[in-house]
């Protein structure tokens, strides 16, 4: 006898998002554009035209006009970040400045790249983000030390686990004031099309973004590079090959994914007010409903986005609750999907101020415009049942 399937409620949009109609339509159209964009014949030039149109759309979403910087397409946000950090670190053989500033709550894509650079002789200094607030005074203290020659700063815009919105622009301005030649990189994967910013507004030379966080397919990302950085030749490619993407990222471009990325970003740009209003309403409703449960909502003390909510359970391991909810067709996460197989406690939550036990008992709920108040109701009811059941079993 066939049983009725449980309705799936997807609340893990910071890990990846479902495709938007705009992205799906763009993918179908791009499938007919089969030529290699590096080919000189008409089929190749049609693909080249679509590639450049997509590049212009995403630059427009970043608030960048033509010739105000380059946008290099990559396979994901991680590759964009590695291109930024490693490409700048190895651009010149000799360097006087060797200090890299970052935060203590960065995404693994940044952390692992910086660990690699530490082994190459760079000094990496982590700025505190306790309570979800970037320690600007801590940045200023480092800058006041004349022995610290700042080579680069890499700060995320939005923390992927807590939803904290960091004052990156303020920090980068201070760094540029003291060290004008310092390179500034921002991981804006969770912030792109969620909060308003431009490279100029946050004083960023480099910005990493990713398609699958904004309802485009997985397998496509991009790196914005400022014209000043290109002119000074402060960044090089670390991927050898045919020299595509102006020599910065070799490999045939993923035209289908890139076209969908641009379409999804453009769609969100056109409807930004509507999307922002809905997410703010959903966040407020979720906050109200979750507040009556036996959980603690880890609300950032400073600015925050309205699509990420982190909660700590009453002595229930996050993995245990994830399985309980998943069995009822409700999907959340315990933090970064990129680290879901790691046994390590979340460094972002420890930096936020949670202890190891609390961090191990925390889950992340992340929303999109496609979620509803009914989804929140179902989550809260399942959490209530889960807490009652799992605490009793424990």
Which labels suit this protein?
single chain, 394 residues, alpha/beta, Aspartate Aminotransferase, domain 1, Aspartate Aminotransferase, domain 2, 2 domains, seven-stranded mixed β-sheet, 40% helix
Task: Provide a short characterization of the protein structure.
With 394 residues, this protein is of the alpha/beta class. The protein is built from 13 helices and 12 strands.
What can you tell me about this protein's structure?
Helix content is 40%, strand content 13%. The protein has 394 residues and is of the alpha/beta class. The chain has 2 domains: 9-19 and 271-393, Aspartate Aminotransferase, domain 1 (Alpha-Beta Complex); 21-269, Aspartate Aminotransferase, domain 2 (3-Layer(aba) Sandwich). α1 runs antiparallel to α8 (255-270). The longest helix is centred in the last third of the chain and has 21 residues, at 373-393.
Percentage of residues in strands: 5-15%
Quote the average pLDDT: 93
Instruction: List SSEs in N-to-C order.
Output: EHHEHEHEHEHEEEHHHEEHEHHEH
Strand order of the largest sheet: 2-8-7-6-5-3-4
Say which CATH homologous superfamily of the largest domain is assigned: Type I PLP-dependent aspartate aminotransferase-like (Major domain)
Number of domains: 2
Describe the oligomeric state of these chains in a short phrase. single chain
Radius of gyration: 22 Å
Count the E strands: 12
The coarse overall form would be globular
Count of helical stretches:
13
**Helix percentage range:** 25-40%
> Main beta sheet: strand number and arrangement?
7 strands, mixed
Structural class designation: alpha/beta
CATH class of the largest domain: Alpha Beta
Model regions low in confidence, pLDDT < 50 over at least 5 residues: none
**CATH fold field value of the largest domain:** Aspartate Aminotransferase, domain 2
The CATH architecture term of the largest domain is: 3-Layer(aba) Sandwich
First-residue to last-residue Cα separation:
35 Å
